[in-house]
Amino acid sequence: MIAGAAAKIGPGIASLGEMKPLVVVGSANADFVLSVDRLPCPGETVSASASDLFPGGKGANQAAAAARLGHETIFIGQRGADANGDFLRDALVESGVKVHRLKTVPSCSTGSAYIFLQPSGENSIVILGGANQKGWELAGEDEEAISAAGAVLLQREIPEHVNLAVSEVAKRHGVPVILDAGGVDAPLDEKILRNLSVLSPNETELARLTGMPTGTDGEMMKAAQSLLSLDVGKVLIKLGSRGSVMVSKEGPEIKQRALPVDKVADTTGAGDCFTAAFAVGYVQGWPLERCMLFASQAASLCIQKKGAMVSLPFANEMPLQGA
């Protein structure tokens, strides 16, 4: 399916550990997954065929994805003082993430997500923020980790002022910042936009951020250009089954097709996997085309398994293994 792609990409992940770490700042959630035939209509009750608990949260997923792909990854986040917090910490450690900056918030539950999974693999999600939204303050050790990073990866399931503070620390120290636009349906502070090397929305998030239509390729390009005019470095648009496209001021857009899979089991976490894999290549200094292909490869493996963090591929599963 994607065998042989390594030849197109060049030197592989064997050298990733030599690079500066990737620092991921974001959310950690316990994902409660209900398998349903379809979503209920208003006032209707439907039955679930299965119920599962998985580790998740956009920040934790992206940290786990990068670590599983072989890159040193530090996670800065918050968990509750409860069993779900321990569950998430253990899952991150098992994926190889460094969790010494994962804080425990007393008298608060760990964040959670309630995911309705349909037979097609499509999902609908309701999030309860919990510790992800409580009492955030960057400590000196956090700032040290950010300033020494090869890149910082952010999402939008934690308070906006935290992302702003992190992006400002990173920019002062010349550290690239990648922001995945998923996590909240709200405008994005223009102060953050000016600090971003890469902003990665899907087409729906792009429309929400810009207030512009994104129904056609031309409309998407115009919306992305409007973000570039606000000093965003590059815009990486995730298009699901249609692939991805990168827009920047440096040249024409770069397109990457989605790679075919035999069966889609669950799309939960696929966008997180894509963004994290892209970030791994970006930290490595790969050409953008190579980063996008690597991200597509990782996402294509992710969607063939159920769950978010548990479906993320390891380095030895990727076509780059041993390259």
From TrEMBL:
Lineage at the top is: Eukaryota, Viridiplantae, Chlorophyta, Chloropicophyceae, Chloropicales
Q: What CDD domains has UniProt attached to this entry?
A: ribokinase (cd01174)
**Every Carbohydrate kinase PfkB domain range:** 20-313
The family assignment reads: Belongs to the carbohydrate kinase PfkB family. Ribokinase subfamily.
Q: Where in the cell is it found?
A: Cytoplasm; Nucleus
Decide whether keyword Cytoplasm is in the record: yes
Q: Name one GO biological process term.
A: D-ribose catabolic process
User: According to its UniProt record, which residues of this chain constitute the active site?
Assistant: D272
Q: Which PROSITE patterns match?
A: PFKB_KINASES_2 (PS00584)
An example of a GO molecular function for this protein is:
ATP binding
Q: Where along the sequence do coiled-coil regions lie?
A: none
Any idea which UniProt keywords this protein has?
ATP-binding, Carbohydrate metabolism, Cytoplasm, Kinase, Magnesium, Metal-binding, Nucleotide-binding, Nucleus, Potassium, Transferase
Cofactor(s), names only, from the UniProt record: Mg(2+)
Pfam name, any one: PfkB
Q: Which residues bind K(+)?
A: D266, T268, C302, K305, G307, S311
Q: How is the cofactor bound?
A: Requires a divalent cation, most likely magnesium in vivo, as an electrophilic catalyst to aid phosphoryl group transfer. It is the chelate of the metal and the nucleotide that is the actual substrate.
Biological or metabolic pathway of the protein: Carbohydrate metabolism; D-ribose degradation; D-ribose 5-phosphate from beta-D-ribopyranose: step 2/2
**Catalytic activity field:** D-ribose + ATP = D-ribose 5-phosphate + ADP + H(+)
Q: Name one GO cellular component term.
A: cytoplasm
- Chief place of localization: cytoplasm
Activity control: Activated by a monovalent cation that binds near, but not in, the active site. The most likely occupant of the site in vivo is potassium. Ion binding induces a conformational change that may alter substrate affinity.
Protein name as it appears in the record = Ribokinase
- Asked whether the UniProt record includes Nucleus among its keywords, one would answer yes
Annotated substrate binding sites = N29, A30, D31, G57, K58, G59, A60, N61, E157, D272
Recorded E.C. number(s)? 2.7.1.15
Describe, as the record does, how this protein assembles with itself and its partners. Answer: Homodimer.
